[in-house]
Design brief:
210 residues; alpha/beta; Rossmann fold; globular
């Protein structure tokens, strides 16, 4: 259970947790095509950030237009002064929770199945660390980063990420755990621990000292 950032909406009202869902070129609750993990992410948010009845704010980001934000979350610095280039600096520590459910681009290139990159062990670890360090700038201290489609065995990847924690590595993280989500008997996405149709996430909690 995590505390929610004590921020106000423009109308002065208190808000629930602010959640960013990456690599999705539509809004989270798009009336014709909501995110395919909508129910799972909502349920997890309610479990992880009890907000006393305050409604969570879900936003999306993608390199393509159509969602709430257009940006590349794997690059902190881009040339220019437009909204795409300024997204990362302007949203540093902005989100209680960030989700990478099924990203392509640099995240997919980390996979051993990638056809665009062949990794040595050292280069792979360095690239993972650099990628996570950039993405984690979006997460507020004490917040969560949910990593879907890990580029290697989920338990091995979780151990790798934990080994990158300060002081041995560059990541300001407090804990790393593996969670499994699945499809229940009604073929609806549900919370962790369901055996059928398992989706695995590595959940990284950012240190409060960040």
């Amino acid at each position: 259970m995590l505390p929610v950032l004590n921020l106000k909406l423009p109308d002065g009202k208190r808000r629930g947790p602010r959640v960013l869902v990456a690599c999705h070129p539509r809004t989270f609750d798009d009336p014709t095509s909501p995110h395919w993990q909508n129910a799972l992410i909502r349920n997890a948010t309610e479990e992880e950030f009890p907000s006393g009845g305050l409604e969570a704010v879900f936003e999306t980001v993608d390199t393509r237009e159509g969602g709430d934000h257009q940006a590349d979350i794997f690059q902190f610095s881009l040339p220019g002064f437009g909204p795409v280039a300024r997204f990362m600096p302007l949203h540093k520590h902005a989100f209680d929770s960030v989700w990478l459910p099924d990203c392509g681009g640099k995240w997919a290139e980390l996979s051993p199945l990638s056809k665009t990159q062949i990794w040595t062990e050292d280069a792979y670890s360095e690239s993972v660390e650099d990628t996570l360090r950039v993405v984690m700038t979006l997460v507020r201290p004490g917040g969560l980063l949910h990593l879907g489609k890990p580029p290697e065995n989920v338990d091995e990847f979780a151990a790798r990420v934990l080994s990158m924690a300060v002081p041995n590595g560059l990541l300001d993280i407090e804990s790393v755990e593996v969670k499994h989500a699945g499809i229940d008997a009604d073929e609806k996405l549900s919370l962790w621990g369901v055996e059928k149709g398992v989706l695995s996430y590595v959940v990284v909690k950012k240190s409060m000292r960040s």
